[in-house]
Amino acid sequence: MNNIKTIKLPALLFLALMLASCEDYLEKTPDSEITTEQVFSSYRNFQGYIDALYGNGLIVYHVQAYTSSFDFGDDVDCNRDFPSGYTITRGNYMWLHSNTHQNPFVTTGDSEHFGLWHRGLENIRICNDGLVHLDLLVNHTEDEYNRLKGQLLFFRAWNHFEIAKYWGGLPYLDVVFVPDDDMKLSRLSFKETLMRIVGDLTEAAGLLPAMWDDAPLGANTGRITRGAALALKSRALLYAASPLTSKMEGQNAEYDPELCKQAAEAAYEVIQMADQGVYSLTPWSDYAYNFADARGTGASARAIYTTETIFAKIKPSTAIGGGQITNFGVGRLHNSGRFGGNSVVTSPTANFVNLYETATGYALADAPAGDHNRLVPWAKRDPRLWKTILTDGVKWVDKDNNAEAYIQLYTNVGGSTTVGLDRGSGSSVQSLTGYLIRKYIPYKVNNKDNGSEWNNFRFNCPYIRLAEMYLNYAEAVNEVYGPKTIPADFSATLTAVDAVNTVRRRVKLPLNEDLTKPAELQVYGNESLPDVRERYTADKELFRERIRNERSVELAFEGHRYVDLRRWYLSHLPQHEKRYGHEFNKDHTVCNEVPLFESQFEDKHYWFPFRKADVEQYALFTQNPGW
After folding, report:
1. What is the rounded average pLDDT of the residues 148-164?
2. How many CB atoms are closer than 10 A to CB 287?
3. Helices 226-241 and 190-207 meet at what angle, rounded to 10?
4. Where does the pLDDT of residue 63 fall: very low under 50, low under 70, confident under 90, or very high at 90 and above?
5. Which of 16, 248, 381, 602 has the largest CB neighbor count within 10 A?
6. C-alpha distances in angstroms, 601 versus 73, 152, 169, 557, 624?
7. How far apart are CA 60 and CA 108, in angstroms?
8. Residue from 120, 65, 522 nearest 329 by CA
């Protein structure tokens, strides 16, 4: 976003503090008196006002949670007892109100660290204030007016959605409150909240351009587009259609067919935009650039934004770390301290590693003899595993050839008394699980090589990317039409199986698998990961499990797994409560799956608790059940 003035905004507190008049709302500097008319009368200034929603308004989850997003489902465990990967996974949701640094709720006074609740409510106020003042805009084109309104509607929906997916139904704030207003608003149900979000996004999609520039990546990269509005609409509708929502409405925990149709149609509109060249799945050779990059020489050379990205934060160069560079965060994302990280390591569970199919396309439980090496669980697997998870024995330092240049995640089992340096023991423990997350860390980003890759490292966790749209479409279509039927209710051309296979065919298999090489140095051929095997596409129940598995693997550590398990109404089941790691010796002659902990997930944990002070303000703002 180039050459656009950003107008700073003061922090607003909870709903009762949303009383400030328009005149008091904008900060005033000692040298200037900015009037409401000056802010909202010109397109350029109005866009600058909206830019606050792109800047500090978008939550940087990894800064707060010691994780790439809010990853705290059955996919991770953490070696320290204060980050979200430890506290939330163990059911300690009251941590939200006591921890002042790594959480999505409590504010710290630093605008980069505002919690999701407070920042989200402030953003909603900004949107409503902007919508009220659209009539002050002069000397503008119809397209400029539409772009401003479309962005405001999108961000109003986005902030309601981000809060609702953790706390459930909310009052939908679509007006600017003044002191005389009755602000004792009832909470809507989760479904009602989602449908209000869908309404805003439907209108936004009709106002926004497919691209702001003549190419997908240009001077306005990162601005909200029609595709972003449709993509979020698809996600919101899929959440509304999911079993948890039906359960909350007093029905059986099943999918809503009509909402599934609407979710599929919205996702398909985005897929059509890909067919028209607006988006594209990055080729396998560039897959990692969706999340991290260490190429180039300039500090602002590589915003992490590809042709697959639909919505992601573009941080200004003055933000923490400078642009999207976060050398200080390598340990938080999620490297061993031995390679430049700190003592906090969130690592993948064996539960999650087990989701990756064999390279021949079988779930582990179904794999024929020889298709899976149980002593080396990461061998002969879907190659996305190596691009997402760091495993024992990988050479991680380019310049050295000694033992310490390799990842060491083995432990003392099977008669061995040796513990790998990246596994550790006692207070020096790094990975609790036998694995490390590497999706956001390119090869040679370490303090041993300490070369240009270290200095130019950028990472970003995309909010929405194209692969999700194929998977949203597949999930919704499968529930209504089954695996192999093209929807008849709108002009689609893909079955649910087609959509999943589109994502899988991007993945290429290595010519000669070498488990000592990082993913970047593997040599890949033209052969793709197999299409979903026929045994899994016989009916919608069988294929439902493959879609969910595919979604978890493709969108790993992007903030989906925890929320998906909840909306599928599965989090309370024993297989998702019990977390495991792998213990293996140095020579890989022994490998055991060992229990880590049990989350003891109860029904009340399907929603975050509100603070006591919030729910005591008035009777209509009720606490979530069980809290």
Report:
1. 97
2. 21
3. 160
4. low
5. 381
6. 10, 37, 20, 20, 15
7. 14
8. 65
CA distances from residue 66 to 61, 78, 91, 156, 331 in whole angstroms, order as listed: 8, 9, 17, 27, 9
CB 583 within 8 A of CB 92: no
Which segments of 453-569 are extended strands (E)?
458-459, 464-465, 508-510, 524-528
Long-range residue pairs from 564-570, CB within 8 A, at least 24 positions apart, any chain: 564/73, 565/73, 565/74, 566/244, 566/606, 567/238, 567/239, 567/242, 567/243, 567/244, 567/245, 568/242, 568/243, 568/244, 569/242, 569/243, 569/244, 569/247, 569/253, 569/606
Tokens, residue 43 = 């397109």
Q: What is the CATH number of domain 15-258+610-615?
A: 1.25.40.390
Q: What pLDDT digit, counting tens, does each position of 247-288 carry?
A: 999 999 999 999 999 999 999 999 999 999 999 999 999 999
> Which residue blocks in 168-252 are alpha helix, DSSP H?
190-207, 226-241, 243-248
**Tell me, what's the pLDDT at 332?**
57
User: What pLDDT sits at residue 22?
Assistant: 38
The more confident residue out of 100 and 92 is: 92
- Rounded mean pLDDT, 282-306: 81
Over residues 519-539, the mean pLDDT reads: 97
Over the stretch 225-245, which tens digit does the pLDDT of each residue have? Answer: 999 999 999 999 999 999 999
Half-sphere exposure of 197 (CA within 13 A, CB side): 34
The residue behind tokens 């192999």 is 484
Q: Could you tell me which residue, 336 or 151, shows the higher pLDDT?
A: 151
pLDDT at 542 over 70: yes
CB atoms closer than 10 angstroms to residue 506: 18
Question: How far is residue 117's CA from residue 110's CA, in Å, rounded to a whole number?
Answer: 15
Mean pLDDT (whole number) for 495-506: 98
CB distance 346 to 67 below 8 Å: yes
Contact 620, 472 (CB under 8 A): no
Q: Does the pLDDT value for residue 222 go beyond 50?
A: yes
Give the C-alpha separation, 481 to 257, whole Å.
9
Q: Which of the 8 DSSP states describes residue 77?
A: E
Task: Check: CB of residue 341 under 8 Å from CB of residue 326.
Answer: no
Do 570 and 244 contact (CB within 8 A), yes or no? Answer: no
pLDDT tier at 516 (50, 70, 90 boundaries)? very high
Q: Could you give the CA distance from residue 223 to residue 530 in angstroms, rounded to a whole number?
A: 36
Angle subtended by helix axes 257-275 and 226-241, to nearest 10: 160
Q: How far apart are CA 460 and CA 58, in angstroms?
A: 13
Give the Cα separation of 67 and 303 in Å (integer): 20
For 83, counting Cβ atoms within 10 Å of its Cβ (0-12 exposed, 13-18 middle, 19+ buried), the class is: buried
CB atoms inside a 10 Å sphere around CB 567: 20
